[in-house]
Design goal:
This protein has 206 residues and is of the alpha/beta class. 33% of the residues lie in helices and 26% in strands. The protein has a single domain (4-203), classed as P-loop containing nucleotide triphosphate hydrolases (Rossmann fold), CATH 3.40.50.300.
Length: 206
């Protein structure tokens, strides 16, 4: 896996307020960038701009040297975006939520791999429970199982440690390290320090 993400002079406003401007970053294979800043500083908006979900007022996002608008389908196939909410459906069980999230990305995974991933993140006994019966941390672990199975080169993660206990946070750190070791790259909005050292910390806000 060899890839490169660049953002050049990104700017975004909300109403009359400027969330950020002049944001530049580069992330290569095996690297990750931490996005830090107080609530409301534009971390989520920046991730959405990089994901192609929000159009910036100014600037360009490039994947392997090409503007993401030029080859949108190719870029979207290469990214895994996870917002700050767990993103699970209450009426579906853990298996169904995980399988559905992967299908939306066009990723076909055998049932045995689904079950194995849920077991790896500590949800083996809870995999058939409706998500509404899971704790906030257990719901987050469905997302960790997704990280195990999705082959995306670029992770765009918004506060992935939210609601996770210490064991869950350590599990995420191991998943991130494994992703980077195989040539993956990541842009992670987080308030917390991780065991893996980012190539750069990008501060948002004043």
């Amino acid at each position: 896996m060899s890839a490169r993400l660049e953002a050049r002079d990104l700017a975004c406003t909300r109403g009359a307020s400027t969330l950020f401007r002049g944001v530049c970053l580069e992330v290569g294979a095996g690297e990750w960038v931490a996005v830090r800043g107080p609530n409301g500083s534009g971390k989520t908006t920046l991730l959405r701009c990089v994901a192609g979900l929000t159009r910036p007022e100014r600037g360009t996002v490039l994947w392997d040297g090409e503007a993401i608008e030029a080859r949108r389908a190719r870029y979207h196939a290469a990214i895994l975006y996870a917002g700050h909410l767990a993103g699970v459906k209450d009426e579906l069980d853990a298996e169904e939520n995980l399988r559905g999230a992967l299908r939306l990305r066009g990723v076909a995974v055998p049932d045995a791999a689904i079950r194995a991933a849920l077991a790896d993140v500590g949800l083996e006994r809870h995999r058939r429970l409706p998500a509404r019966r899971l704790s906030a941390g257990q719901r987050r672990r469905i997302g960790l199982a997704r990280l195990l199975l999705d082959p995306a080169a670029l992770w765009l993660l918004d506060e992935p440690l939210t609601a996770l206990d210490d064991a869950g946070q350590r599990l995420f750190e191991r998943l991130l390290e494994r992703h980077l070791a195989t040539g993956g790259l990541a842009l992670v909005a987080t308030h917390q320090d991780l065991a893996s050292t980012p190539v750069r910390s990008l501060g948002m806000g004043p």
